[in-house]
UniProtKB/TrEMBL annotation:
It comes from Aliarcobacter cibarius. It holds the Pfam family Peptidase_U32. Keywords: Hydrolase, Protease. Coiled coil: none annotated. GO terms for molecular function: peptidase activity. This is Collagenase-like peptidase, U32 family.
Amino acid sequence: MSKQKVELLSPAGNLEKLKIAINYGADAVYAGVSHFSLRIRASKEFTFETFKEGIEYAHARGKKVYATINGFPFNSQIELLKKHIATMAALKPDAFIVAAPGVVQLCREIAPEIDIHLSTQANVLNYLDAKVYWDMGVRRIVVAREISLKDVVEIKKYLPDMEIEIFVHGSMCFAYSGRCLISAVQMGRVPNRGSCANDCRFEYTLYAGNDDHGTLFRLEEEPGVGTYIFNSKDMNLASHIKEILDSGAVDSLKIEGRTKSPYYAAVTAKAYREAIDDYYDGKFEPEKYQRELHTTKNRGFTDAYLIHRPFEKVDSQNHDYALSKGSYEVTGLVTEDEEHFYCKYKVYPNEDIEIFTPHNTVLQECDNEIGKVFKKEDGLYYINFKKILTDTNKELESVHSGNVNKIKLPCKLPYLTMFRIENTETNID
């Protein structure tokens, strides 16, 4: 087994999601600023100022922040990249996540005090490549998503001091470790420079042509098969956490999803936190974690390649749809003062709404003129509003996501607690 408890690493697409991931159980988060990150759309949500605030927030709670500088720069960008590295280093993140060998060297020259983690985009599958990066100063490798657990163990055997990070949850790319050019060809958005348009998720119509005859036939799809020919299911290894940790070769479990919702950040962090803690406590319960993970939006789940080889799998693609709606809708988020919430969907009086709380939270029941917090026979806590009052005491018949007023709670609830309702109408089975 590993010398110390495995790390849980969550995505942080913005400051709010950073705080959510940490409060719901992550040991560390990864995020970026500007176009040198491979999630340029998510990175635009962070400024240097809010990124600094996020690092300070994490460090004050004993958590870590890894800064993504994992894009592939052109020559014309190198001077700008040098300034970016220096600026990011001054914010004191715990590591840089880097993909290109030249950028690894640049980071070592400009910010030798910052640890280097090698991005999965570098496609490390064996101990030979891992050794090359170790000699360059890399101290953690995010191995390729196509790697097997057996090969992870082999790398650890040859390089016992190299930290190894693996993806355990999130979107999968049909191309090799994300090395894709489809959206560059079709949309002019370059996936490996942070602006993937997710063209693999589109529905395609297939044709057969004959150049000699000049004919073109539209291929009719078999009913129920569909035309999402590039669409991969999402990775979900929660049921295999025991197997992974038993190997003793993995130092960090990584969740994909900087562009995903705050609810996704919360549920994945909490579910995998419980899976890790339960493993060390000797009471691993896969069904419990899967129940929560299946409430998030997904394209169907697969255990991908870590446990099984690609040729052994027949369930890694989703031919029917590109994105399910998920079985739950977040309807409220508790504010920092813990006395109000912001509506994220819709809330009506006299409805029982499930309370989804940050990790290790203990709730107290209450009942007053505003509403009540109570526990049902299913073991879950619910909130029911008798009145919907704004922070200025204006009473509303209902509240919807367009309303930006803070709404009073019947009693204090932990910051970033979510209210959720089952949304069976939009769930895709």
